[in-house]
Amino acid sequence: MTTPTPLTYRRAGLTLAGDHWTAPPATPPRGTTVLLHGVGQTRHSWHHTAARLAEHGWTALTLDARGHGDSDWAHPHDYTVDHLVDDLVHITGTLDDPPVLIGASMGGITALLAHADHTIARALVLVDIAPQINPAGAARILDFMTRHRDGFATLDEAAAAIAAYNPHRNRPATPHGLRKNLRQHRDGRWRWHWDPQLLQFISDTAGLTDLTTRMDTAAQQITIPTLLIRGELSDIVNHDSVDHLLHHIPTAHTATVTNTAHMVAGDDNDIFTNHLIDFLNHLLPLPRAELRKRSGPGT
């Protein structure tokens, strides 16, 4: 499996962490992908997908959003979607070719708005997110995130909570993989690898209504190839969401991953990645001048 190179970006006084995956030397370059995780996740949720993309000739950049993973925590008022969009626009501005933006949930919202406002992408992949979502599903996510603010006594306790939230997903034999999403604090408790101040923004009902309207407007400006990959069991994106998206983005196609919920990439990573690679394989190649190799990622 390809091994990534860690990198950092400086943005508005913050250090943002990422991993840079490159194709093997003998593999013809296909272009660049930027993968953006969902709220409460980290760049490690894309680990296997990014490795497979690299094997198929795609440079893959996986990022920890501000307040997540190894990226710095921001001022409590600096977690708006506009801050996330600004971060993404800055980072894509350091690339040599227009990337394919691949965003799950929060990452998909960021990618959609960023391209609509700044025309930065070659293609767009939305992972179980759309302008029209099921409010009950969003409330369920918020409930899960707020319920465990004081963390867990053990990794096994955290694994049990996740299993209760995602009963359809096979529980790993050991909980050690959760170390990528949890930090053990001085009191011995394990807490999520994100800033709890994020909750004040994702729980803003009025802000969510405004964001939905903004996403609707943004979707009508998208003319690049677009793919929506949704989970069959998702309580966020339903059939009405899909129809609404296809009406607003004529260049869009959809794919459904069976027996998966909102965390599509984690629930069935191989099938999800197969859909993604099939979409990428059908993109028109970039002109040779736009496939220049970068001398060094990160700024």
Automatic annotation (TrEMBL):
Keyword Hydrolase among record annotations: yes
InterPro entries (UniProt xref): AB_hydrolase_fold, Carboxylesterase_BioH, Epox_hydrolase-like, Hydrolase_4
MF (Gene Ontology): hydrolase activity
Stretches assigned to the Serine aminopeptidase S33 domain: 28-266
SUPFAM superfamilies: alpha/beta-Hydrolases
Entry keyword set: Hydrolase
Domain of life: Bacteria
Record's keyword annotation contains Glycoprotein: no
PANTHER family from the UniProt entry: HYDROLASE ALPHA/BETA FOLD FAMILY (PTHR43194), PEROXISOMAL MEMBRANE PROTEIN LPX1 (PTHR43194:SF2)
Record protein name field: Alpha/beta hydrolase
Annotated organism of origin: Amycolatopsis nalaikhensis
